[in-house]
Amino acid sequence: MLAKIEHGPLMDRVYRHQRHFYDATRKYYLLGRDPMIAGLTPPEKGSILEIGCGTGRNLVLAGEAYPNTSLYGIDISNEMLATATKKIDAAGLDERAHLAYADAADFDPEALFGRRQFDRIFISYAVSMIPQWQEVIREAVSHLTPGGALHIVDFGDLKDLPGFTRTVLYKWLEWYHVTPRNNLFDVAGMVAAKTGCTNEARRLYRGFAWISVIRRKK
C-alpha cells in the first residue's frame, strides 16, 4: 500500500521538469511505441484507453491513426497530465479525448469516464516504472470489451545486446526508477490463461523492446 501512495508524488518529482523535453529525448530509446500503436487496429468508432498516458504523445498519434475513435488516458502524475492536456488540445483532439488522474492498479473507469470497458487498452513504457505492474495488467484485462485487446510495449530483457551495453543501460535506467520486467511475457501468458484470453509476444531490436498483446475472445 505504501508504494501505491508514494508513487504519484515520486512521478511528479521525476517529471516536473523532464515533461517539458520528455518527448524530444525519449524518441531515441523508447523504441517500439509506433509499431505498437500501428497494431492497435480498433473497431470503427471504438474506444482506446492509455494507462500511464504521460505527455499525451501516444494518445495523439493513436487519435490521428484512428480518427473515429474515442480516446481516454489515465496517469498518476499530475505534472504529466498537465502536459498531456496541452498536447491534446494543440492537436485538436480535445473533443474526443478524456484524461483523468488515477492509480492504474485500482481505478474505476465508469466513475472517471462513464464507461466500464474499452476496445483497446495500451501501456507504453510504464510497467517498468509501476511497482504493482502485474496487478495493473490484471486490472486492465478486466476492462476489455469482448474481442478487445491490451497492448504493452516496454523494455525487453536486452539479452541479445553486447554485455557492456546491457550493463550500462541497466544502470542508466535505474537512475530513472525504471526496472525492465524480464518476466513480462510469462506474466502476460498466465494472466491470459486465467482469464480465457489469448496472448502474443513480439521481440524487437535484439530484445531491447518487447510487445505483449492479451486479447479477449469475442
Strand content: 15-25%
What does the main sheet amount to? 7 strands, mixed
Helical residues, percent: 40-55%
Which CATH architecture would you pick? Answer: 3-Layer(aba) Sandwich
- Count every helix, treating DSSP H or I runs of 4 or more residues as helices: 9
Mean pLDDT: 87
Termini distance? 35 Å
Main β-sheet, spatial strand arrangement: 3-2-1-4-5-7-6
Fold-level CATH name: Rossmann fold
Based on DSSP secondary structure assignment, what is the total number of beta strands? 7
Which term fits the overall shape?
globular
Radius of gyration: 16 Å
* SSE string, helices as H and strands as E: HHHEHEHEHEHEHHEE
Name of the top-level CATH class: Alpha Beta
Name the poorly predicted regions. 1-5, 10-29
Domain Methyltransferase: 48-148
GO molecular function, one term: methyltransferase activity
Organism: Phyllobacterium bourgognense
Keywords: Methyltransferase, Transferase
Q: Describe it for me?
A:
- By secondary structure, the protein is of the alpha/beta class.
- It contains nine helices and seven strands, in the order αααβαβαβαβαβααββ.
- The protein has a single domain (2-215), classed as Rossmann fold (3-Layer(aba) Sandwich).
- The protein is 41% helix and 22% strand.
- A seven-stranded mixed sheet has the order 3-2-1-4-5-7-6, sandwiched between helices.
- Strand 6 and strand 7 form a beta hairpin.
